[in-house]
Structures are given as C-alpha cells and as structure tokens.
Amino acid sequence: MSSTTSDPAPDAPPGQPPRVRQTWVDQARWVAITLVVIGHVVGLLRGRSDLARAISDFVYTFHIAGLVLLAGWGARRQRASGEGLTKIFWQLLVPYVVFQLLAFAANRVFEGAHPSWSFTSQTFGLWFLVALAAWRLLGPWFHGLRWPVLPALALALLAGLSPRIGDHLSLSRIAFFLPVFVAGPWVVDRVSHWRTLPAARAAGGLLLAGWGLWVAGHQPTFDRTIFFGRDSYDALGQGGLHGVLARLAALALTTVLAVCLLVLVPGRPGAPTRVGRWAAEAGRHTMYPYLLHLPLLTVLAWSGLLGRPAPTIATLVGVLAAVAFCVVTVLPPVRFVAGPFVEPRTWAQRWLRPRARRP
C-alpha cells in the first residue's frame, strides 16, 4: 500500500539499457485495495446473502497477503535509519491516530458507542497501518540475514502458541504475516517474470477460479478465521502440532493465491494504454480508498441502505459501489480535500514550506 510513487525497477548493469518501470506493481496495488473495500462492503451482508458470504470469504483468503507482498517489495530498500523512522511516523502513525479518532467519533455518532480512547487496540481495519509500521521496522534486520524468511516463519508459527498476544498492537497479525512481508521482494521479482509466461497466467487463473468454486461450494460452513492471523491455536481449538501445521498450510495457501492474483493483474511495462496509465497512477494513492472507506462503513451500516434491496441485488450493488468508490477516491479533487488527513507530511510541507522570495 502506498500513497506515493512506487520504487522503480533496479538499475540495469552498466552497458545495458535501463529497465522499464514496473508499473504493474502500482496497478496491482489498486486492484488489491479494491478487493479490500469489496470484501468489507459485502461483509455487511454476510448474514443475509449467501453470495455476499462467498465473495467475502473468497477475498479474505488472499487479499491481505497480496497487499503484504507488495508492501514488502516496496520496502525492499528500507534501511534502519532516522529517515526511515521519520517516514514511518508521518506516513503511517500520524494517519493512524487521525483515523482512529475519526473512528471513535463515527462510532459515537452512529452507533452510540463510547470511545475507548485506546490506541493499542485498533478499530476496524486500522490494524494494517500499525502492522505495516512494524514490518518496515523489522524488515531491514531480517533482510540482513542469509535466509530471512525462515526465522520470520518460525516467529509466525511460535506466535500462535501464545493466547495473550491477540489484537494488542496487532502483534498476532504482525507475526503471522511477517514471513509474507519478508518474502515480498523475492516473490514479486519472480512474479514480474511469471507474468510474461502464458502458461503461468493460465495456471494462476485456474487456481484462483478453482479456489473460488471450492469456497462457494462449502458455504455456509467455510471458516476463514485462520487467514486473519489474529487467533492463537488455542482460540481456534487446535493443539500445538495441529496449530503449527494448519498455520503453515494457511500461510502457504494465502501466499500462492496472492501470487495468482498478481500474475493475473493485466498491464504491460510502462503502462502504454490509457486505462493502464490511470490504474498505475491510482495505485500510487491507495491510502485514500483504504483510509476513507473505514469511517464510511460505519455510516453505511447505520444507514441500512444495503438492507433494503433483495440480498443478491444488494450484494451486486455493493460490489459495484465499492469499485466506484475506489475510482473516485484516487481522483485529484478528493486527494486535495482529504490530503491533510491521509498524507499529513506531504501537505504540511506543501503549505508550510516558505516560498522563495523574489529578487
């Protein structure tokens, strides 16, 4: 997830032409965040619509892993430095505090919930900002190891043994998705090659479609909880060995499905088409649909708008509305209005930077 331009491809060796910017990464970011919003919107209808439940369950099994892989690739050059800490503070922690306060206000006005004023346990959806801050802090240390994914995976598996981690500072989810984040640079670089292979695209499509049919065929008993990464083995009713094997399988499956999604995202190097250029630009501002849809979900649930049409129609309307929302919220006018909340540092520098005096 990124609200700024993504990193270009590494420079080519001397004597070779420079590599083309991997614009498909930006395009994939927008697709992934759109799936997040779709999953959250149709999730409001899980109790009324089998279609909504199937879509929600299907999306939740891989959309987080897709975002984490892309976030890991985007942070591949992150260093343990003061500059890195400053970016984490302004890009993640300040927006987190702002939207946590907005969530408190929305919940109070529309649901009558008294604010907890707690910033160690996140309101709905905001856990990802805290987790992303932690992954960016931890990433440089793991990448300094020879086999960085192995210790990250060990930590993810051991975390499930503790029933006390839970949602406090999103520690459980931080540990669960840490190996996915650490593997991000390696995986995404290979996806860049696999996307050029028709056989790989076909295999990705078949796997993702097959999984979707499997999830739909196991409704309403399909349990997606393990893919959240927030529950201990004990909370899931699993013993130690059973829990380790189940979590290992869930991590493998969610990563494979996320790779299938990234392989299937359309787009060519340099985004030569008009739609491709738009999607690439949209992918550089995914913080806007991500953060702005969270308080609106509270308003949408309170309004009951999705509860009025027939369940299937409401689900289809919800999907279309989510896509439209992700289109609108990356447009310049929306970014201009919401920028001080979503990108506080950028806007503070823009408005507070002293203008050069004319001679």
TrEMBL record:
One Pfam family hit: Acyl_transf_3
GO molecular function: acyltransferase activity
Source taxonomy: Bacteria, Bacillati, Actinomycetota, Actinomycetes, Kineosporiales
Keywords from the UniProt entry: Acyltransferase, Membrane, Transferase, Transmembrane, Transmembrane helix
Domain of life: Bacteria
Annotated segments matching region Disordered: 1-20
Membrane-spanning segments: 28-46, 58-76, 88-110, 116-135, 147-165, 171-188, 244-266, 287-306, 312-331
Identification of the protein by name: Acyltransferase family protein
Domain Acyltransferase, first and last residues per copy: 23-329
Species annotation: Angustibacter luteus
InterPro entries cross-referenced by the UniProt entry: Acyl_transf_3_dom, Nod_factor_acetyltransferase
